[in-house]
Design goal:
single chain, 2 strands, 118 residues, 41% helix, binds zinc ion, globular, mainly alpha
């Protein structure tokens, strides 16, 4: 998964459009599209830096800085393909507690809500 795809999953799980995020984070138009679509452009310390992107977006929707950095360095991270959660950043439902894996690519929280990866 690319860091941009991870951002898009987390954004959509929070129910936000790109324009919503730009207005909430005070970013110029098209900056979210730029982050999400910059498939090869994520390099630690250059171009699109995961730490900078995290600082810009973290207050707006749930995002894990460790996951973002690992994806930017091409590490494989197991991520729920429905909501973007991971073992470092599990869903935490008030009633059901933290999620776990319900299948190879989705978590128990998404399973319970009937939200399955495409
Ligand atoms: Zn999930
Ligand atoms: Zn989850």
């Amino acid at each position: 998964m690319t860091p941009g795809r991870y951002l898009a999953l987390r954004r959509l799980a929070a129910g936000l459009s790109r324009a919503d995020v730009e207005s909430l984070a005070g970013l110029p138009p098209a900056s979210v599209a730029n982050l999400e679509e910059a498939a090869g452009g994520w390099v630690v310390g250059k171009l699109i830096d995961p730490a900078t992107a995290y600082d810009q977006l973290a207050g707006v929707f749930p995002l894990c800085p460790i996951v973002l950095r690992r994806l930017a360095t091409r590490e494989t991270v197991r991520i729920c393909l429905a909501c973007g959660c991971s073992e470092m950043d599990a869903c935490d439902d008030e009633e059901h507690g933290p999620c776990s894996w319900a299948g190879p690519a989705h978590c128990t929280d998404c399973e319970r809500k009937g939200v399955l990866p495409e």
